[in-house]
Amino acid sequence: MTRRWLWPVVFIGPALSGLLVLTWVPVLMSLALSFCRWDLLGTPQFVGLTNYQALLGDPLFWQTLKNTLVFVTGSVSLEITLALSLALMLNRAVKGVGLFRTLFFLPVVTPMVSVALVWGWLYDPQHGGLNALLGLCGIKPIAWLFDTHWAMPAIILLRVWKEVGYTMLLLLAGLQAIPTHLLESAALDGANGLKRLVYVTLPMLSPTLFFVLTVCLINAFQAFDSVYLLTQGGPQHSTQVLVFWVFQNAFQFYKVGPASAMAYVLFLLVLGITVVQWQLRKRWVLYEDA
Amino acid sequence: MGLFCTKTSLFGFAWALAACVGLAACWSGCAPSSPKDSRPVTLRVSTWGSAEEMAILKTQLAQFETQHPRIQVSVIHAPENYFQKLHILVAGGLTPDVMMVNSFDYPVYAHHKILAPLDKPLDGNHLQSVFFPAALQAFRYQGVLYALPRDVSVLGVFVNTDMLKAHGVEIPQSDWSITDLKALAPKLTQDTTGDGQPDEFGISFSSKPPLMWLPYVWSEGGALLSDDLQHVRLNEPKAVEALQAYADLRNKAHGAPTKTQVGNATMSQLFVQGKLSMLVSGRWSVPLLRKQAKFHWEVLPFPQGRAGSRVGVDASGYALSSTTTHPKEAWELLAFLTSRPVQTAFAQGGLIVPARQDVAQSPAFRVSPASSSQVFLDAMASGVPTQAPLRWNELAEELNLGLEPVFDGTQSARDAIAQMTPKLEAMLK
Asked: Would you say residue B260 has pLDDT above 90?
């Protein structure tokens, strides 16, 4: 009886120690290092708030922040809209629906490096598939990844294509959990398809939408691989996003202090947005038990 | 087998090795002695390199292990982002015993005393007679030698002679000038398919890394940094003018392809495909051309500007960890890796300009056409030694991004350089 506390500790201990050593210790060390100057080789030197001050005074930081917000807004809104449309279309008993669900989910399980290679070719201004398609419609070739105006939309498009399957799957599960009698009652009361969507489906789906929005936002803020593989932040910083900036400073320039400071700015930003979202949920998320 | 393979220098090498082994032993508290010598030792050596390069290295290392039965060599191969990985290894206390380094990235390790100084254990005069002085110079940080060079990186101009002949253009002489290039390159830019877009181009255009465009600046008498690496000189008129002229060669004279025209292809690929008449590149392009080029080619020196033909003289080589627990064996491996047979094996593949003078003069390097090989040796004599401040990576990235609009033709060199100079200056402090 006195040893009842022991079993939970034994069971969660291994997972907890992994989390502690591999996540929480580095997170705390990173906080300490954000107040230091360190190139990974010498001894860290305490510099107070210098890294944070330098960050706020660096025009590149503000441009990176702006790029990140554009990326997050663009990719999350497109991803959720498209995923919802796909989920609504695939939430029917039509022939071949399983095949379509699989096809839309395939990019999610494809490694990003392969995706980047293929999309790099699709975006090639000379021989790319995308420009060839546009050419059929009489549209002049676009320099995609080499043009400061098009590089960010190109990266957003790639992300939406890659991630939409996962979001679609979550929304599909949400849709299937909506009791059919609600929709049937609405139909009997004379509600047309659009009204059933607006007044029944979307409110009933709102808890799933809330979850999807939160996860998509957090993931989008952490976007790195597509930028690293396709544009390296260019052309002319137009696709420079926060996590790429952190990586570049820490592992290319060996400036661990500023990189850690930026990581904490990112953390606070994501935390802030998540808290606001959590507060706002009461206004639009419908819980059945509420 | 050792650093020197001629009979006259064999004695010198034996002496040098004995001296270095003795001193090396002292770094680790004079610990290694005869009883320990029989114990098996595993040395860790880190390197970058293509599959082809690794095949040569592994064959050579197998020979080393045969000659040194109690030493096993474990290779840490990082073909991409090598220095990021090395940095993490060092930071994590896993410094390899022997590390491949280049003249741009080694200073930070020398600065932190990660690398063992090599001057004292080795006979300087002998080194000067074995290696090209420029190659040794590339590995001197604050006057101290930190690596023995394997190869020297210098640029030349690879010319598709068939393409020039097809366009009725004479192949330039070896004393050609940047003015000749400016006249020639636009003539070689052609629209062969009649779609209104050029599909053959005069000369390659590389906006990064900086060492690809710096020859245009240096040859016109300009410079990137002051000799003491304390100040930026790119904002001086000669450099600004030269950079603008380089950008104009692409954007105004249309002698070189734009980014959109190149797309995802590399300049080497365009050259091999016969879409580029001239390619500014190094010796490393030779194996690819020998294997894939279906045309005749030769190598010309970089064209002369007002200050002559001046390209960067950079080097790659091997350094020792200052904290290795097997200094004697690590020294043996270092000596082996920079020995004549090993450099000969690499030179035969056409991959490197050997840092050893004897290999550079041997048939292994001077394969047909010998004149093409000589171009790289001549470039070394007239070239500019590596200028790599501690924050080189950051500086290079700033240059890559800051000059992008200049090379794209959307900003003048004067404005772009004026904008970035304060940032570059700050990186030198």
From this structure: no
pLDDT band at A2 (very low <50, low <70, confident <90, very high): low
> Do the bridges between strand A45-46 and strand A36-37 make them parallel or antiparallel, or are there none, so unpaired?
antiparallel
In tens, the pLDDT along B338-389 reads 999 999 999 987 888 999 999 999 988 887 665 678 899 999 988 988 888 9
B4, pLDDT greater than 50:
no
Which sign does the torsion angle of CA A24, A27, A33, A35 carry?
negative
DSSP B254: -
Mean pLDDT, all residues of chain B:
87
Tell if the CB–CB gap between A253 and B109 is shorter than 8 Å. Answer: no
Of A120-124, B140-144, B195-199, which range is least confident?
B195-199
Q: Which secondary structure element, helix H or strand E, spans residue B277, and what is its range? A: strand B276-282
CB of B421 within 8 A of CB of B232?
A: yes
ipTM for the predicted complex: 0.79
- Looking at residue B149, its pLDDT comes to 95
For B108, the closest chain A residue by CA position comes to: A41
Hey, of B88, B90, B108, B260, which one would you mutate to test binding to chain A, going by the most A CBs within 10 A of its CB?
B260
User: Which of B260, B393, B401 lies nearest to residue A253, judging by beta carbons?
Assistant: B393
Q: How many Å lie between the alpha carbon of A67 and the closest alpha carbon of chain B?
A: 16
Structure tokens at B205: 């255009």
Mean pLDDT for all residues in chain A: 90
A232 touches chain B (CB under 8 A): no
Q: Kindly state the tokens that stand for B414.
A: 């004067």
CA distance B115 to B98: 9
Helix axes B178-188, B237-251, angle to 10 degrees: 20
Entry pTM: 0.83
What are A204-237's pLDDT values in tens digits?
A: 999 999 999 999 999 999 999 999 999 988 788 8
Decide: B175 and B158 in contact? Cβ < 8 Å: no
Q: What is the mean pLDDT of residues A88-100?
A: 85
Kindly tell me if the per-residue pLDDT of B14 is higher than 70. no
Amino acid at site B334? L
DSSP per residue over chain A, as a string?
Answer: -TTTTHHHHHHHHHHHHHHIIIIIHHHHHHHHHTTEE--SSS--EE-TTHHHHHHHT-HHHHHHHHHHHHHHHHHHHHHHHHHHHHHHHHSS--TTHHHHHHHHHHHHHS-HHHHHHHHHHHT-TTT-HHHHHHHHTTPPP--GGGSTTTHHHHHHHHHHHHHHHHHHHHHHHHHHTS-HHHHHHHHHTT--HHHHIIIIIHHHHHHHHHHHHHHHHHHHHT--HHHHHHTTT-STTTT--HHHHHHIIIIIS--HHHHHHHHHHHHHHHHHHHHHHHHHHHHHPPPTT-
Burial class (CB in 10 A: 0-12, 13-18, 19+), A8: exposed
